[in-house]
Amino acid sequence: MKKIVLAIIFIFIISGLKAQSRDIVTYKQNWDKQTIFWGYYLGLNMKDYKITYKTEGTFINVTPSAGFNVGLIGDLRIHKNINLRIEPGLSSNTKELAFTNISGGPKDSIRNVNATYLRIPLLLKLSTDRLYNFRPYLIGGVSYDYNFSSNQDNPDDNSNGEFRMKKNNFTYEIGAGVDFYLPYFIFSPSIRGIFAINNELVKDYDPNSPWTGNVDYFGTRGIFIKFAFH
Hints:
Elements lengths: L1 H16 L18 E18 L6 E5 L1 E14 L2 E5 L2 E11 L6 H4 E18 L6 E14 L20 E14 L4 E11 L18 E15 L1
Antiparallel strand pairs: 1-3, 1-10, 2-5, 3-4, 3-5, 4-6, 5-6, 6-7, 7-8, 8-9, 9-10
């Protein structure tokens, strides 16, 4: 997953550097002189889980689906090429977990995980100097993610059909994008890779549970595509 993200980031930057090679009108010439500015973003995500096991014998097959992101942007310029950014927003996604070691039909072997997170990323944005009407950048940082759909406090576990995850989680993200300076606003598409820091799984009460007993680590990972407007 990380290699794919880095490859896409590299292609993204190279493609941007080939654009706008001729003399054109320069828009928003005073934009980068602002100390603080605001914006919002919309986007798509594709998330699954990184899972490691204590021993062989358990395998969870994750089938992800596309989800959405929406949120706000607050940006503080601390240097001509460095910005500190906060991007609070919502991220929603659905995944199907198939426990291949469990028989008995879909009721026991399949769990559908509908997750909606409040994400509060604190990011550092490193930009190149402006090139005509675009400006490539790298971005990265950490995020606090609150899972509204965690089921952490549910007294039932997988023996009663309930798959549980933790409410409070932390992720890190890395990515790249381009600021396009248009006549009336800044359009900033980017691609991000996100990776969980903590173990998000709430284990079943039975330490030998066929669903969670052999799971050592269970954490979100995924790709976000964001379209920001300032």
